[in-house]
Amino acid sequence: MFESFNIPADKICRDFLHYMEAGSMADLIDSLPSDRDLSDDEWRFLIEGDYDKQRLFDKADKVRRQYYGTDVYIRGLIEISSFCKNDCLYCGIRRSNKNASRYRLSEEEIFSCCEQGYELGFRTFVLQGGEDPFHTTAWVEKVVSTIKERYPDCAVTLSLGERDRRDYEIWHQAGADRYLLRHETASCVHYEKLHPHEQTFAHRMECLHNLKQAGYQTGCGFMVGSPFQETGDLIADMRFLREFRPHMVGIGPFIPHHDTPFAACPGGSLARTLTMVALVRLTLPTALIPATTALATIHPQGRELGLKAGANVVMPNLSPAAVRKQYSLYDNKICTGEEAAESVDYLSRQVMAAGYQVVVDRGDPAKTGCATSDGQLNKK
Ligand code: SF4
Questions:
Q1: How many domains is the chain built from?
Q2: Nearest protein CA to atom 7 of ligand 1, as residue
Q3: CA-closest residue to ligand 1 atom 5
Q4: Which helix H or strand E contains 357, and what residues bound it?
Q5: Does ligand 1 have an atom closer than 6 angstroms to the CB of 162?
Q6: What do you get for the CA distance between the two ends of the chain, in Å?
Q7: Closest-CA residue to 160 (of 85, 235, 75, 225)
Q8: Residue 91, ligand 1, Cβ within 6 A
Q9: Does the CB atom of residue 86 touch ligand 1 within 6 A?
C-alpha cells in the first residue's frame, strides 16, 4: 500500500514510532496477551523501541500472577555428560573444543543427585547433557524408569538433544514428563550461521514436533544477542512460539565462550533479555519460563529481575560439585553459591525478597488461573 503512495520505508517506520510514542504504546501493552498476530512494526517497537520497559515488565508480572500467583518452581538440574557429538559454534563443550574437559555421570551418581535433591525439596529433576552416544535408548530408559519408581511424585525432564522419534516415545513411556530442546532461533538463515552444515534447522523443528506428538510437556527457547541476530530473527521467534505453543520457554543472553569461534563476539544484554522474557510471558501466559542461569551470570540480580519480568522457574545445579565447572557451555557460568542446589534456603530468601515464594511442587503448567491477592479468581 505504501509503495503506491511513494512513501519511503524509513519514513513509515519513523512515523510509526512517532505514533507509538505519542501514546498508543500503552494501548499496545495493555492489549497483550492478544489473540491477533502483531504486525512487524509492533513487534519491532516492543522489542527495540525506546519506551518505559517497566510498564511492560509490570504487565508481564501481572499476567504471571493471574496463573501462578507468587509461586516459583525449582528444578534440580543434573548435568549428566559434557561429551557431545555436535559442534554448535557458540558452545563451550562442542566436539571441536579440544580444551574442554569431559565427564559422564554414572547411573549411581545420577540417583545420588536425585536422593539429595529430593531431601532438599526438589520435585523435578532435569537430566541435561550434550548429545553423547553413550546414552543409548535403553540406558536412558532405565535411568528414567528407576527415578520414577523411586520418586513417583516427581517429574523427570530430559534435555538430551535431537534423537529419533522412537527414542522420545520410549523415554516418555518410561516416565519422562518433559523435554527441553531449545530451537535457538526460528530463522533458518540465522540457524545456519550458528551451526555446522550437518545440523539442520529442519531437523531441529522436526524433533520439537515429534516431542509434542509423543506427549511431552515440551520446552524450546532461544538466545538473545547471539552472533548475527537481528530484530527480525526475534520477531520470528515470537511468531514461532505463538504458533508452536510450547509448555516451557528458556530465554537467556548469549554469553561467548573463549574456546569457540564466537569468542570475540559481544554478549547479549540484560535489558533485551528481560524484554524478551516479558514478551514471551504476554504471548504465552501459562508458559513455564526459567529465570536462567545465564541471566544470573551476566548480572548479580539477573535472576530476581527475570522473575519480575515474568519468569516463574529457577533451576539450581544439583550436579556433583566436582564436575560442575566442566559443564562449561559459556564463560563464567555460575554453579556455586546461591546457584547450587545445596543453597536452596538462601535462594528461597532471595526469591522471597523479590516478592515471590519457592514451593515444593512438580510445577506443571497452569490449566486455570489462581486467586489473586484481592481474592479474585482469574481464568484464561
Ligand atoms: S549446544 Fe548442545 S548440542 Fe550443541 S555442542 Fe553444545 S551440548 Fe552439543
A1: 2
A2: 130
A3: 94
A4: strand 357-359
A5: no
A6: 37
A7: 85
A8: yes
A9: yes
* Of 337 and 105, more confident: 105
Whether residues 48 and 69 share a domain: the answer is no
> Which atom of ligand 1 lies nearest, measured to the CA of 130?
7
Q: Which pTM does this prediction carry?
A: 0.90
Q: Please report the DSSP string for 157-192 in residue order.
A: EEE-----HHHHHHHHHTT--EEE---B-S-HHHHH
In this structure, are 39 and 151 located in the same domain? no
Report the C-alpha gap between 272 and 89 in whole angstroms: 22
Ligand 1 pocket check for 94: Cβ under 6 Å: yes
Per-residue model confidence as pLDDT tens digits over 47-80: 999 899 999 999 999 999 999 999 999 999 999 9
Crossing angle for the helix pair 40-48 and 231-244, to the nearest 10 degrees: 110
Place of cell 519511503: 8
Q: Are residues 222 and 270 in the same domain?
A: yes
Q: Which of 218, 83, 245 is nearest to 158 (CA)?
A: 218
Structural domain range at position 202? 65-359
Average pLDDT on 215-239 reads 98
